[in-house]
Specification:
Elements lengths: L1 H11 L5 H15 L45 E2 L36 E2 L7 H12 L5 H11 L7 E4 L6 H10 L5 E6 L7 H12 L2 E6 L2 E5 L37 H13 L4 E2 L9 H8 L5 E5 L5 H14 L3 E6 L2 E5 L6
Length: about 350
């Protein structure tokens, strides 16, 4: 009887399990003492307000008919390069059909002939010159020129355009006008083949942009925009979207030079290859004094060799064409990046 009572008391007074107190204590700690870490806090999803959404309306956008074709009043034919093309030499073939205009299909109101986009109307030269003179205004005095030169002639000038072997290109004219929006002058650094004839570069920069060169030091130029220049009335310059393939021109070096026989031409080439070079040119260098040195050397020598190692064969051909027209002389060979030129027969 006593054993039954003890078993009943144990059964009615059983203590609560320890797991319940532990669980309650852990929940209490997580809710009070441990706050969420900001980097790992979940981002609440934004609530969508259905009333703020506007209904989608489909509208038929009509193209602006005044955008294309682009019309430009610039009084000259558009070419890829103005200073590195000779209008007297006509191509004998094209590497692509002339219908592929670098300005894009239907974007320009001028016809592309394969080398240039022709001007559609006649040009009144006197009117063009008068408009340019009105933009330039009165000539700058000495103090104004010195002030502009001091501001823009340094190498760390932010208003600089690099002129490479392409010379004065069409898109460069647009770059010049973009600089003229916030600067009175732009610094132009010339390198490569165009530096053989800096006078030609200066002429085309002034003629195509309408500005005035106020500073010239070896291969550094400063192009002034003019006193009355207004960026809002700048000319419309359609950009070339890609570089056109150069056409095929007549062969520069003939098998037999003009005025010589085959044996004499062969003997001249061997003499040139075995002679010391009068000058060594570097890639993208400054060739301002090359023409003068060649003329002086021709006073005592009949055949000359110009070392163009690392210049590139394409630049060698351009240099030979420039020397033929500027010296003048007769290129008779370019081999292993060496240019052999003959002064020609002197006419007394």
């Amino acid at each position: 009887m006593l054993l039954k009572l003890i078993s009943r008391q144990r059964h009615h007074h059983k203590p609560p399990p320890t797991t319940t107190t532990t669980t309650l204590f852990s929940r209490h700690l997580t809710q009070t003492h441990f706050e969420p870490d900001p980097p790992f806090t979940p981002i609440p999803k934004p609530t969508q307000n259905k009333q703020t959404h506007k209904p989608i309306t489909i509208t038929n956008k009509q193209p602006n008919n005044n955008t294309f074709p682009i019309k430009s009043n610039l009084p000259f034919d558009f070419k890829y390069s103005y200073s590195e093309t000779n209008p007297s030499v006509h191509p004998i073939g094209f590497r692509e059909t002339p219908k592929f205009s670098p300005f894009g299909p239907g974007r320009l109101d001028r016809k592309w002939t394969g080398t240039e986009a022709l001007l559609q109307q006649d040009v009144d030269i006197e009117k063009v010159d008068q408009e340019r003179n009105n933009i330039l205004g009165e000539p700058l005095d000495e103090d104004e020129v010195l002030d502009l030169v001091e501001r823009y002639r340094h190498g760390d000038c932010s208003r600089q355009i690099n002129l490479g072997k392409g010379g004065v290109t069409h898109n460069m004219i647009d770059d010049i006008h973009n600089h003229w929006k916030k600067a009175e002058a732009v610094r132009i650094k010339c390198l490569g083949v165009p530096t053989l004839d800096m006078d030609n570069v200066c002429f085309h920069l002034e003629d195509k942009s309408g500005g005035k060169i106020i500073y010239r030091q070896i291969n550094i130029l400063l192009l002034y925009r003019g006193r009355n220049y207004d960026p809002k009335t700048r000319p419309v310059i359609p950009l070339m979207l890609w570089k056109p393939y150069p056409p095929i021109y007549p062969k520069l070096i003939k098998n037999v030079a003009d005025g010589l026989t085959f044996e004499e031409t062969k003997e001249m080439r061997n003499r040139g290859l075995n002679s010391p070079p009068i000058i060594k040119l570097t890639r993208n260098g400054v060739y301002v004094n090359v023409v003068e040195k060649v003329r002086e050397a021709f006073e005592t020598k009949e055949v000359l060799r110009i070392d163009c190692v690392h210049v590139g064969m394409s630049d060698c051909k351009r240099i030979a064409v420039k020397l033929r027209d500027l010296v003048p002389c007769v290129p008779i060979l370019y081999k292993d990046e060496q240019i052999i030129i003959w002064r020609g027969k002197k006419t007394m």
